[in-house]
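Q: Could you predict the 3D structure of ABC transporter ATP-binding protein?
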Amino acid sequence: MAPFIPARLRPARVTPLATAPLIELRNVSCGYGDRVILDGVNLKLERGKVLALIGTSGGGKTTVLRLLGRQLRPISGQVLFDGQDIAPLDLAGLYAVRRRMGMLFQFGALFTDLSVFENVAFPLREHTDLTEAMIRDLVLMKLNAVGLRGARDLLPSEISGGMARRVALARAIALDPDLVLYDEPFAGLDPISLGIAARLIRDLNDALGLTSIVVSHDLHETFGIADEVAMIANGRVVAQGTPDELRRSEDPLVRQFVGAQPDGPVRFHQPAVPVAEDFGVSA
Ligand SMILES: Nc1ncnc2c1ncn2[C@@H]1O[C@H](COP(=O)(O)OP(=O)(O)OP(=O)(O)O)[C@@H](O)[C@H]1O
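A: Sure. Here are the predicted structure tokens for ABC transporter ATP-binding protein:
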């Protein structure tokens, strides 16, 4: 499964301190306009780990990914990538950091007019001066890793949704990033394709020495591949731990969410007048 990548083709990496987290959010608050979405969030992730970000819709999971890619800056606090605060970076610094991140956002849209091969080659052509022969080797290695070397000449319209997601995955790791951010990578996939995509995220993470953050509503699959799970609700990380720790959590919010119970701290019903009053029946 693991693609062999010759040393000459791999981008230079800073030798990491074994214990230093690759990413860290320190007391981060942020929002859109006047609306505060995250309020004093702390989150750490060590290299080599897969973190699942879960939580209620609109809780701020995607916002965390936007902070890490610096599509959004914090109002206060720090967002550290490999020990470096990314908020003050100039364009060149930001570009260098983003090169070390792969991103697969919802549905991982492919360029419809480009072949599978060219879709994966795209970031390599954009960001490197590699020769055509090297690009070919790298693209085929990445496609091999996702099981689609044989589909290289097909167009996105000629492959299934599950295959397209795997091509998007190959593209996200084309530049050998340190960190890969996945936003709803399983959305719209059938159970078999979903299982394959989830396993691939874990296997690629381990084989290529990546660190991965997966935002997903699919708790079964993400709990199956994650080392750690962080639950975000009401603008805060309300729980973080191993999948087993979250399953065993006594926190009512975590129990409601992980146990998929309709009622708990997050109410199913909007506050309303009594049912009897609306339907004109006596209680
Ligand atoms: N560009 C934006 N401008 C204004 N508000 C936004 C913007 N993006 C997100 N929001 C708001 O911020 C809140 C958090 O959004 P976010 O997308 O981070 O949540 P989420 O946990 O990823 O949700 P979901 O699981 O539904 O994708 C939501 O209330 C959303 O409406």
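Q: Anything worth pointing out?
A: The pocket of adenosine-5'-triphosphate is lined by residues 32, 37, 55, 57-63 (CB under 6 Å).
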